[in-house]
Write a structure and sequence with these properties.
Layout (H helix, E strand, L loop, with lengths): L8 H6 L7 E4 L10 E4 L3 E5 L6 E7 L19 H9 L3 H14 L15 E6 L7 E8 L4 E8 L2 E10 L4 E8 L3 E8 L17 E10 L3 E10 L9 E11 L2 E5 L2 E7 L1 E11 L7 H9 L5 H17 L2 E3 L4 H4 L3 H6 L8 H18 L24 E2 L3 H6 L12 H9 L1 H12 L9 E2 L20 H16 L2 H22 L1 E2 L5 E2 L22 H21 L3 H12 L41 H4 L2 H20 L6 H13 L3 H14 L1 E2 L4 E5 L2 E3 L2 H14 E4 L2 E4 L10 E8 L3 E9 L2 E8 L3 E7 L4 E4 L2 E4 L1 E6 L3 E9 L6 E9 L3
Parallel strand pairs: 26-30
Antiparallel strand pairs: 1-6, 2-3, 3-4, 4-5, 5-10, 6-7, 7-8, 8-9, 9-16, 10-15, 11-12, 12-13, 13-16, 14-15, 17-27, 18-19, 20-21, 22-23, 23-24, 25-26, 27-28, 28-29, 29-34, 30-33, 31-32, 34-35
Helix pairs in contact: 2-3, 8-20, 12-13, 12-14, 13-14, 14-15, 18-19, 18-20, 19-20
């Protein structure tokens, strides 16, 4: 396996510690969506890398500007019998129209967007022009989170480095290079002149912005305050930013709300942004006081941050044999050396790191990544850059557990639990049901405030159950019983009691899901998104109830509910196979499948692996394969284009079905198409729309091709494509408190190191090898492995020449936890 060497002095000056684990570009950002990004899950920063003057956009998790006061959703439950009758009679669009009409009778406008995620402000860095810039480079080091920019001009070398500290919750900017460093610094309302950025809203949204500055001989202070016009009880009212500026050996002067620095050997800027829910009581004096006590050494601040950030980034690594020469290419050159059908291996390795970096940097203690992560430099982001919960949010968190970033799930759980009262209100008003009903869009609150005739989003019911799978998997992966009892089980029960009230029996005694919605598709014969019996509804409910029965039976709790859940499971309708032999998207003859669509919601049962009901049924597996192929036919006609996360859904399904080359095809499209090549940040469409869904979806897909798991069973290389003849992956978290510490494979051999936090016995399978051995016993395709808590086991497998036999050297080695 390759291991690229340390960078040369030029790249090291940018803050690059490893060529292999960084991205370097030789062009500045021409628009905000091509910026280099850094973040700690609370604060984010976007560095444009422009010279000699720079704009650094400051972001903060949860900064959804208040534009629309939340209101209780439409009282759909009052007309639910009427809607159900209409849908049962095939009047699908009429049902969607009826909800809109009824909401207007209540005085409610469902065409109400979520409050958008917007920037806090920008730090403008102005430097004197001293001739034509040359030798330009900018970078992001994934192992430290440092973004850098360097160039030379007639005065010499200029270097800017920035990171967002985890331990100190600071944005840290260093200006070095030539002596002296001369610059002007000012915090301003985000610059609307940045290419691609929408201008700020008018006074109906923003009341005031106040930049101020104060200076002594060698240090200065910058502050910025923004007050939002639209406010209501509990809403965000504004935000405040404070910066401490240290100019070593120079003079600092306050001028027009900014700072002028002359004659410094280096300049250090440390900033912190805070949201305000009571703007009448400013936090700026306290913020400035806190910053005055912070260590003022760049290297010390970075070392403390890099130790934490770097440990997380180093846990899970992918090596498919990319060359050091390719890793040394600039990002634009590396993308130019790759295309669909000829995916550059180094590019994919670097993207794997970039994805984990984007998710880690934008996942905080209170919020998961929005559609744009924790970044954004426009006042009118696509889809409000909110939490789109019919697929986008679930995709961006999908890789956290297998890719060994379990702490990145904290904000996801905290955010959902904080909005549970709203979700309960939705369930009761929309369906007269207990439990939780999650809207397809949320940001500052969880009330369902958006629906219309084309997008009947009050019919969406699968969200709480889908999110429940992540609660359950976190328990299975970590073994955290406190989390299970106080977070996972309560959430799962909220999702289950909703279905208990919402489902009703049909003529055959099986459950009916009505009204229903399969994001965001329409029946080919109705051209309406209003639906009946979406396959996803039952797949998510079946998964949820099966998990509840399993864990509660294991713990010997909830006996009454377990009996009820088992009864509900017995009444679940079977998957429907349509006339094309494919799994139908709706379990009803009233709706015909529409294959040309970017979502693949009916494949939900295969997103997280191969469940027992599908694994034991070859007929179902064949039907799922046909359904997958139907979606892929449309995708192939577009060369894979159109929405990254829908491709992730297809890839997960292919990996679960062990369709190695099909899964690789989706990886090929995702890796080549859905990126900003200049910065290696992911996109929603091909090279357009800044979006981080793929950052969770692609690592999940790659790891699902290499390792699949459920409690008591581990499958290695289940969907290994022919192109990955050799490779290595480390640090894969698995259900059952198991870690694949090291998996390395060659055409005729493999080595795996397993570590378990608990004593357990698992069935181990290595696909593609007809026989394997553990200790002195030979097994056909799979074998039993006994794992001891706190110890690692190393298995070495070798395929004999001219034979299908496998010989194994097995060594048990103790490792510290």
């Amino acid at each position: 396996m390759t291991n690229s060497s340390s960078p040369d002095p030029v790249l090291a000056s940018l803050g690059v510690t490893s060529i292999r684990h960084s991205v370097v570009s030789d062009v500045p950002a021409t628009s905000w969506d091509k910026a280099m990004v850094s973040g700690n899950g609370i604060q984010g920063a976007m560095a444009m890398g422009r010279v000699p003057d720079e704009t650094i956009v400051l972001n903060h998790a949860g900064l959804f500007i208040p534009l629309a006061a939340p209101f209780p959703t439409v009282s759909q439950a009052k007309i639910l019998p009427e809607l159900r009758r209409m849908i049962e009679e095939g009047m699908f669009q009429a049902a969607a129209d009826r909800v809109v009409e009824y909401s207007k009778e209540e005085g409610k406008n469902g065409d109400t967007w979520t409050d958008p995620f917007v920037p806090a402000c920008s730090l403008k860095v102005t430097m004197p022009s001293r001739g034509t810039p040359r030798g330009y480079l900018r970078s992001t080091d994934f192992l430290t989170g440092v973004t850098g920019t360097r160039w030379e001009d007639d005065a010499g070398l200029h270097v800017r480095r920035l990171f967002v500290s985890k331990p100190d919750n600071l944005i840290v900017l260093s200006l070095t290079g030539i002596n002296p460093v001369d610059c002007d610094l000012k915090l301003v309302l985000h610059d609307p002149e940045l290419d691609g950025a929408a201008p700020p809203p008018g006074p109906d949204a923003i009341m005031a912005t106040v930049p101020e500055a104060a200076a002594c001989e060698d240090w200065g202070r910058l502050t910025f305050r923004i007050v939002y016009t639209r406010r209501w009880p509990g809403s965000l009212q504004g935000c405040e930013v404070a910066a401490r500026v240290i100019a070593t050996g120079g003079n600092v002067t306050a001028v027009d709300g900014g700072l002028t620095i002359r004659g410094a050997t280096d300049v250090l800027v440390i900033l912190r942004t805070e949201l305000s829910y009571n703007i009448s009581e400013s936090r700026l004096p306290a913020l400035c006081s806190e910053l005055s006590r912070i260590n003022d050494r760049y290297d010390s601040l970075l070392a403390q941050h890099a130790a934490i950030h770097g440990e997380i980034m180093s846990r899970c690594q992918l090596d498919l044999g990319g060359t050091e020469a390719d890793h040394r290419l600039t990002a634009p050159a590396l993308f130019a050396n790759s295309c669909v059908g000829r995916l550059n291996t180094a590019l994919l390795e670097k993207e794997f790191d970039a994805c984990r970096y984007l998710v880690l940097s934008s996942s905080g203690p209170e919020y998961p990544p929005t559609l744009q992560g924790i970044w954004g430099a426009t006042w009118k982001p696509d889809w409000s850059s909110d939490y789109t919960q019919n697929g986008n949010l679930q995709t961006v968190v999908a890789g956290n557990l297998p890719a060994n970033i379990p702490e990145a799930m904290n904000g996801f759980f905290r955010y959902l639990e904080s909005q549970l009262p709203d979700y309960r209100d939705n369930a009761m008003r929309l369906f007269g049901a207990r439990g939780a009903n999650i809207p397809h869009r949320t940001s500052a609150h969880g009330l369902n405030n958006r629906w219309e005739k084309v997008w009947p989003m009050t019919f969406w019911t699968a969200g709480a159950a889908w999110n429940a799978q992540f609660f359950y998997d976190y328990w299975l992966t970590t073994g955290n019983k406190e989390f299970l009892l106080n977070h996972a089980l309560p959430w799962m029960k909220e999702a289950a009691v909703f279905f208990e009230d919402f489902f009703y029996p049909g003529p055959d005694g099986k459950w009916v899901s009505n009204p229903s919605y399969s994001p965001e598709n329409e029946g080919a014969n109705t051209l309406s998104q209003s639906a009946l019996n979406s396959t996803m509804d039952f797949a998510a409910a079946r998964e949820l109830l099966t998990n509840l029965v399993a864990v509660c039976s294991q713990l010997g709790i909830e006996s009454g509910n377990v009996a009820r859940w088992k009864t509900m499971l017995a009444k679940m309708p079977e998957y429907m196979i349509n006339s094309d032999g494919a799994i139908a998207e709706w379990i009803t003859p009233l709706l015909k499948d529409s294959y040309d669509h970017r979502h693949a919601s009916h494949l939900y049962g295969l997103y997280a692996g191969l469940p027992a009901d599908i694994a034991s049924n070859p007929v179902l597996q064949t039907a799922f394969k046909v359904a997958f192929d139907k979606r892929m036919e449309w995708r192939r006609s577009l060369n894979g284009a159109d929405m990254a996360f829908g491709l992730c859904q297809l890839g997960w399904a292919a990996a679960s079905l062990r369709l190695a080359d099909d899964a690789y095809e989706t990886v090929d499209w995702l890796a080549n198409n859905f990126w900003f090549a200049e910065s290696m940040v992911t996109s929603h469409n091909v090279r357009s729309i800044f979006n981080v869904d793929l950052a969770g979806g692609l690592p999940r897909l790659i790891l699902q091709m290499l390792v699949q798991d459920r409690p008591g069973q581990l499958d290695l290389l289940p969907a290994l494509p022919k192109r990955w003849k050799t490779g290595c992956v480390t640090g894969v978290l698995c259900r059952g408190q198991l870690v694949v510490r090291h998996l390395e494979w060659y055409p005729e051999s493999a080595t795996v190191v397993l570590y378990s936090a608990v004593d357990q016995t698992i069935t181990l399978r290595i696909d593609g090898m007809q026989e394997m051995a553990v200790a002195d016993t030979v097994f056909k395709k799979s074998g039993v492995v006994i794992l001891k808590a706190g110890k690692a086991i190393t298995l070495k497998l070798r395929q004999l020449a001219h034979s299908e036999d496998i010989t194994v050297n097995s060594a048990h080695t103790a490792h510290a936890h």
